[in-house]
């Protein structure tokens, strides 16, 4: 029989524990349905009045991890993004790689002269006649939303840069567009404003069919912080070298050698990296 | 003989103690020149290697206060603004009053529908054909500057609101302008951008001839936190009632009665309030 218990959200608010919500969240791990149902039943048995969603999430992650490290990594994507560090740079790099996957030529962290002042643009992306200026808003804790002030300020930067772009040779026929990526969420008025002025907005779960999580799944561009076999210190050491993606680890196995990781762990890590990079193939 | 000692700035940086700078800062107290010179000589005798500017400022304030509470209050204006509290509301009110002094009709904290979203505008000010939308950026600690992101976001808000204003009856011939007031300072690129897009920018010391401090001196619109005779608790109680200015205290002596302040202190406070309110008359 279903228990009806109240659990505590990140915000401190209480809400009824919802089995369907749990199952949906588990499905994003792309684990097979048997494992999803198995974990969900186990959680239902253990969930108690007043338990935090964080605790429930942690239990689910551990159960998944014991059966499938890759599913656990996928389930853990949101948290892996929060582990990219206190600066926004790895996130900008990830966004650049996602746009490359979509066929754009990109530059990350470029100083660009606008009409009034110069700006550091996180990602400039070009494909045929499309010329995008992307701002990345990175938060390393849950519940920090991206409010309307960010698209407002991004729009002014974009307008300032666009004036200058338009005056360049061959630019008058290009489609210029500003954009804003965040690893958390937009407030309602941030989406309302951004949509109204035609900024491209991407957040953890927006737009629903082409959100950040959907794009990462599709491209298989998981951050290396998703690798359950790496220690925190090893992740930090790789990030400090400017390495951000599982893919980069897989393509440069020498990196693991340099960290002094033994051969059997190296194999495990490379194996997981490959499975995460090639996520798209398993979906097709 | 002049000592050459290094003193420590708010930023932690060391710099040579500069007698002329001290004298200039003392002159903004509008104390008579004898008192200015007297305090300056006293400070020179007491200043020591590595002393902080904060300590030196405090000594100067105490010396002024013992001779002239009003001069001390004027000298202390910047700090009085920092004492307005953790929310920006008293500062918005002060800015509204300053614009009224300049002949505008003002509204403070108004929700306005823009073309894309609605905005809470700190101060709307109108005079003849001029229709201003002012954002107030309040900081309650030293060294927090207003960087370029603020005028960038203010400009987008202004553009969004202006679209709507322009469509209103009789508005097509009006001059619409955005503005930004801060009690601290703008970074160089904030001034460069704001000037380029024609925002009206006012900070503690910008524009030089018509800065926030100059406007407050001219209007005599000192915040009640400048009153050296009120305790911290009394200031907080008045601010909590929505009272912000010395002028309001002077015009409503019942407020002091309500706080349970005895008659002799009431007289002292009202006397100081009057002298601070009428600053302009003593200057003309």
TrEMBL record, chains A, B:
InterPro entries registered for this protein in UniProt: ATP-cone_dom, Restrct_endonuc-II-like, Restrct_endonuc_IV_Mrr, tRNA_endonuc-like_dom_sf
Record-annotated ATP-cone domain positions: 5-86
Signal peptide positions (record): none
Alphabetical list of PROSITE patterns matching this protein: ATP_CONE
Enzyme class of the recorded protein, top EC level: hydrolase
Entry keywords, A to Z: ATP-binding, Endonuclease, Hydrolase, Nuclease, Nucleotide-binding
EC id: 3.1.21.-
CDD domains: Af1548-like
GO molecular function: endonuclease activity; hydrolase activity
Name used for this protein in its record: Restriction endonuclease
Taxonomy of the source species: Bacteria, Pseudomonadati, Bacteroidota, Flavobacteriia, Flavobacteriales
